[in-house]
Amino acid sequence: MKKLLTAVLSCVLVFSLTACSSNDTQDSNSDLTKVTLMLDYTPNTNHTGFYVAKEKGYYEEMGLDVEIIEPGDNATTSMVATGKADFGVSYQEDVTYALTAQDALPIKAIATIIQHNTSGFVSLKDANINSPKDFEGKTYAGWGAPSEEAVIQAVMKKENADFSKLTIVGADGSGVAGLSSETGDNKVNLNWEFYGWAVTRALMDGYDLNYMPLNELDERLDYYTPVIITNNDMIENNPEICEKFMSATKKGYEYAIDNPDEAATILHDVALSDVDLDFIKKSQEYLSKQYALDAPSWGVMKDEVWDNYTDFMFEYGLIDSKIDAKQQYTNEFVE
Description:
The chain is 44% helix and 15% strand. It is α/β, with parallel strands linked by helices. The longest helix has 29 residues, at 2-30. It is globular and about 65 Å long. Mean pLDDT is 92; it is low at 1-28.
């Protein structure tokens, strides 16, 4: 009887210790603060630092449980403004739009992912489109944003080109593959693409292209795209969460800067397993050099970049009033 009682007590003790261990793990996990990050688009090499920070445990080290979500049919800017997402990936122009709207949204940019605008106009080399002057008589396919037309007008005006001689049609999603060197019905000669993704892919696929970087056509167009945003409530009432999130995110991007191949592999394995790894590595090789180019450190923004593009937007009637740079962004979480 004594042996039986001892055995029972031993089992109870083992069960209790196991339960306690399980509860300790649960408690440990529940200690993490849940945070949501909404992307601007499907995962790509603009987002590598987030996935690196998550997979290498940088967020967890900061006490955060970060969920990375895609926007779907939702506008990231408004989702962040209403607190339905804590942080988001957006663009400088969207922040300016949001803050100058009649019903301004309570958001602010807290880091730039890339220091310079890495987008530009792309065409087939045989089309002989070597400057905005050559846009005359050609067809451009775009997404129909007011800022898009304003940018094209600006670069053509600078070259004394006639904007009315450019035909603009809606993009069908074919991208570079849909470009033609011929003009006429149903022929598209010009797109606006990001070098690190669409242009890199096209070059790997053997396309012979002309590429005109936007930031070389007009210095005002060297704006931040993309940026990380949050809402004013997070900044004012949860600054420690912002600090922790940005500290880990910055560490993720710095890892990607120093280790592009490894970072690309992480992005591939976690979010882009159906995309060619060699392409992701090529894209990452390019962007890793761009993330903090000419900057004291990753994420830091400058007044002049915000002011230049705000002036541009006002000049072309995209916004009704100007807004000071400091109302649109802060470096407090990345410096």
